[in-house]
Design brief:
Mean pLDDT: 87
Strand content: under 5%
Helix content: 55-70%
Radius of gyration: 20 Å
Oligomer: single chain
Largest sheet: none
Structural class: mainly alpha
Number of strands: 0
């Protein structure tokens, strides 16, 4: 934060988090399997919940976008600010979850176990969940952009100069 203004979440940072999460998760899962552990398929509720969160973030951000465009007068500015924070958290969470699920797919692929039905189920369920995590990250980044409030036209940059703190 600089002078009370939030900066938009960087795509590069979200990608770096996804990569770091993938590498750490892959290492941990390989270690787990080397000690006799077994990966289980990801329950469908996992990717459904992630997509549901993405939908909620998208709807909230759309409402803020309508407010910023002047199509929703009287919108709660505090809700707009909270939506920006939720969008940012969603982008980062999507990156983290992608790494976790992608690592599970990689473990199965690199072991060459796709011929085994149980392992194929792990790869498929984790792959679907990884895609849902990408959707969450993208929705978070787009939602942040939708919540941007243009800077005030005058030179007065004092407190309260923007609705959502020039968030995003």
């Amino acid at each position: 934060m600089d002078g009370g203004l939030m900066r938009r979440t960087s795509r590069a940072r979200v990608l770096a988090i996804a990569l770091a999460s993938t590498l750490l998760s892959f290492t941990a899962l390989r270690l787990l399997e080397s000690r006799g552990g077994t990966l289980l398929p990801v329950p469908p509720i996992a990717w459904v919940a992630v997509l549901l969160i993405a939908a909620v973030v998208g709807v909230l951000a759309w409402n803020v976008r309508q407010y910023v465009r002047g199509k929703r007068p009287g919108f709660d500015v505090l809700l707009a600010a909270r939506t920006v924070v939720l969008a940012s958290a969603s982008a980062y969470t999507g990156g983290l979850l992608f790494g976790w699920y992608a690592a599970q797919v990689l473990v199965v692929l690199l072991a060459g176990d796709l011929d085994i039905a149980g392992r194929r189920d792990v790869a498929l369920s984790a792959g679907v969940s990884a895609l849902a995590a990408v959707v969450l990250a993208v929705v978070g980044l787009v939602a942040e952009r939708w919540c941007e409030v243009p800077p005030p036209e005058d030179d007065e940059g004092g407190p309260g100069a923007s609705a959502a703190g020039s968030a995003a």
